[in-house]
Amino acid sequence: MKQSNMPKHLQSFIIKMEKEGLPQALIDTFAYYYKKVVAGETGLVFDKDIKPLNADEIESADNVGQYADAGKKVLKNAVMIILNGGLGTTMGLTKPKSIIRVKNGKSFLEIILKQAQANNVILSLMNSFSTHQDTLSALSRINPRSVPAMFIQHKFPKILSKGLGPADWSKDRDLEWNPPGHGDVYTALYASKTLQHLLDKGIIYAFIANSDNLGATMDTSLLGYFAENKFPFMMEVAERTPSDLKGGHIARYKTGNLILREAAQCPKDELDAFRDISKYRYFNTNNIWINLHFLLDLINKFGTIRLPMILNPKTLDPVDASTPKVYQVETAMGSAILLFEGARAIRVPRSRFFPVKNCNDLLAVRSDCYILSKEQALILNPERKLDEIKINLDPEYYGNRDLLNERFLVDGIPSLVDCESLTIKGDVCFEKDVIIKGKVMIMNIGKSQAVIQKGTVIDSNLTL
Question: Cα–Cα distance between 335 and 288 in angstroms, integer?
């Protein structure tokens, strides 16, 4: 591109990224989005341009069991790529979420390693700059039989809302940058040469999932269905419930291709339609299948992978509203579904979607509501006859992992297999072998901590 045709400030962004040692593929990707921002594009997806999907437009995972043998045959050609860039900030931690002990005394990372081993499949991790060193240290302690291939998620420079120049913040240079979203997995795979390395080893099929979702495993029926039908891309979707209002939903774009619309891409005056689960019935679980040959072809065609843009308005320091207003350019991994002709969505059961986002989720997964299968997949306990448990813990006393651990002593997670919902208000500590059944609210109205004694059975509301 000639200098005269370059948007104002773009050269400054390029220089800034080059000084950080960021790869050319990422610089070209950012330049593509920056030109959109300068042109006034917002990344919004309007209702008028999409149509809801009907059930008959999406295959059900219940109908693909006959592909299991085909899937087993191509396990040698498959890789599990786990997004491992998240910190456990919602649980009060500054370390990678994946090293939190989540089930049977094991961390997410330990269980994921066992999942890959149980399926005899290659494992790869996309770390972030924030999680890479701690993940290396954790792997050194775990000492797995096979160390996963690792590559690092990139970063984008923040754009000043006023003037659209690069953010400059001498107080903390890290605040000048933002994570580009998990859509960066494709560019990071390519720029790190991990993509070519996998292809050179005969790896064709990639299953990509989040580290905090232990229900997402390398399923041979889904793999076989994906491979046998030669799909370039497949997204696992699930039926939306009222608790999924914020998650991105799948729809049919005006071009005929499938499209993922995230909440940040929805115009504010259309949010009611976005949240209408009877209209947009299926949400993205962020479990993705992709044919690596098709991915490389797409990148070679354009030089970058041009995902739909998410433009997030923020303040430069997210916790200081007085700092300058900025735009963060981000992308979603699932949005690649729009780019591939013949891409598919497949409806999967909720059992493939158990993300742990906060301490409520962590308590549920640690409890006997869930068990680990022989393949180390997190599954609903067969003894549980109820739907997913609803847990609401008082954030003052259970708002982070350490507070949670202090109040559920060693072996102190209550049995919740027969519990429909649990709400705790106030400071309550649990000894071991407590059983909670039905719909229960436990409320401590006193000024000191209340203790639920060993062996207590609670099947109705309790005030202490």
Answer: 10
CA dihedral 411→84→374→357, nearest 10 degrees, is 50
Segment 189-200, tens digit of pLDDT: 999 999 999 999
d(CA 222, CA 225): 5
Residue 313 DSSP one-character state: E
Instruction: Determine contact, residues 32/194, Cβ cutoff 8 Å.
Output: no
What is the Cα 230 distance to its own chain's centre? 25
Are 141 and 253 found together in one domain?
A: yes
Is pLDDT of 245 > 80? no
| Residue 239 in tokens | 């039926």
Mean pLDDT, range 229-254, rounded to an integer: 91
Could you tell me if residue 49 is inside a domain? yes
Identify whether residues 44 and 183 lie together within a single domain: yes
Q: What is the Cβ-side half-sphere exposure of residue 353, based on CA atoms within 13 angstroms?
A: 22
CB 237 within 8 A of CB 285: yes
Q: For residue 441, what pLDDT is reported?
A: 98
pLDDT of residue 241: 86
The domain that contains 375 carries what CATH number? 2.160.10.10
Q: Bin 273: left if φ > 0, else alpha if -120 < ψ < 50, else beta.
A: alpha
Q: What is the full DSSP assignment across 220-279?
A: HHHHHHHHHTT-SEEEEEEE--GGGTTS-EEEEETTSSEEEE-GGGS-GGGHHHHT-TTT
Length of the chain: 464
- Residues linked to residue 234 through DSSP beta bridges, in sequence order: 289, 344
Instruction: Locate 262 and state its tokens.
Output: 């995230």
Owning domain of residue 436: 362-463
Percent of the chain surpassing pLDDT 90: 91
